[in-house]
Amino acid sequence: MKDNRDPGTLDLLGPAKRGRGRPRKADALSNAERQRLHRARVKAKEQIAAVSADPGLQLLAATFRDLIEAEARAKAGCTSDELTALLTRAVNRFS
């Protein structure tokens, strides 16, 4: 045992050794938390796959993509003929 007030004494046991392996992080997840997050990711992927398999939703998503593209091109200064073609293509999907 070392006397902290006496600078001449030596520590007989030496410094404390660190345990084996990599030190644990303070914000590390437990196994249960990791499994819960994994199940949530798998469930989300299944839901996305179910939505993407529905042809009606695919049609609606394609239409929204065209409308978003038309809006972006309008902001970028696209010509009115190109915008009209995009909007016509979006509307004709439902005809």
List keywords for this structure.
95 residues; mainly alpha; 3 helices; elongated
**Total beta strands:** 0
* SS strand fraction: under 5%
Number of helices: 3
Mean pLDDT: 78
* Helix residue percentage: 55-70%
Distance between the termini: 89 Å
Order of secondary-structure elements: HHH
Main beta sheet? none
Show unreliable segments.
none
* Shape descriptor: elongated
- The structure class reads mainly alpha
The gyration radius over C-alpha positions equals: 32 Å
Describe the structure in your own words.
There is one protein chain. This protein has 95 residues and is mainly alpha-helical. The chain has a domain at 55-95. Helices cover 61% and strands 0% of the residues. It contains three helices and no strands. Helix 2 (55-76) runs antiparallel to helix 3. The longest helix is centred in the middle third of the chain and has 23 residues, at 31-53. The radius of gyration is 32 Å and the shape is elongated. The model has no long low-confidence stretch (mean pLDDT 78).
In short:
The protein is an all-alpha fold and 95 residues long.
What's the structural blueprint in terms of helices and strands?
Layout: H1 31-53, H2 55-76, H3 80-92
Helix pairs in contact: 2-3
